[in-house]
Amino acid sequence: MPLPPAAIEDLHRWRADHVAALLARIAALIEAGADVTPEPWIDAPPDPSAARGAPQGPPPQEGGAPRPAQGADPRRPKDDDPRRPAGADDPRRPAGGQDARLGAGGGSGRSTDGSPPAGGGGARRSADGQDARRPAGSHAARLSAGTHAARLPPRGGGLRLPARRDLAWAMPGAAPVLEDLPAPPPPGGPAAALRLAGGAALELRPFRWQRAALSLTPWRGRALDWRPLRRWALEHMAPRMGDAAPELAGVIHRVGGPRSAKGSRILTLDLGSAPAQAAVALIEAAQAAGAARIALGPPGAWPEG
Prior knowledge:
The protein has helices at residues 5-31, 98-102, 139-144, 227-236, 276-288, and strands spanning 35-38, 167-170, 177-179, 192-195, 201-204, 212-218, 254-260, 265-270, 291-297. The chain is an alpha+beta fold. Helix 1 (5-31) crosses helix 5 (276-288) and helix 4 (227-236) packs antiparallel against helix 5. Residues 35-159 are annotated as: Disordered.
């Protein structure tokens, strides 16, 4: 679906603004000595229309027990466990077994049920967990060093989708923190009104990449088919690392809703580090869902009730 060059440039700029802020935050945390996991799956997908900003810790387990750090296996002794001789391998893990072949990061980038890896981009890792394709000491190598649980993340919302946060980080000896960057006010600029092939009307208003809304009005006498939009979300939650930001996975983070509005349905979106093409594909999915009017912009841009 062709969009005017000016609209494509806007999408690239809005995405670049958020990615630059996210990379700056990651770099600052690493400089301060934190271990950082970008874009981790989260256990309880929130609605992205909720307020963003203050970092939140992971929710406690049932019964109030603290939750282990992201990706940590509570059954595995720590490296400094006195029960394990210095330099000894885990006696429960046979040499050359599947875990040894996969390495610390899961290697294949896929879980046994075919789900995307939790919080990662499926990078190849050496035995010490480092990404073999990246120079040691680089930000990308440092970010690749953590282990991630290869399991299907929980799903929530009306479309039953998993969700990610901007980053998880922990200082040495401290509990991990889940954080979303606060979204600045929407950028200024006029709205663009377009007529798409097939007759649907598109309104595009300036928005922040991490805080957007999609308003859909169906054709008269027809209901919306949510399957194309759910398929779009799942496809763009799969990691697709790019040269522009190798530390990030190129994924959307959350889709909230749908909520009813005056004759329309509204989804709230956190487009994460996904490329600008993801927003174009979103508009195409909205067309396939049977929307006669599509509006993409900041939350609150259209009346609800």
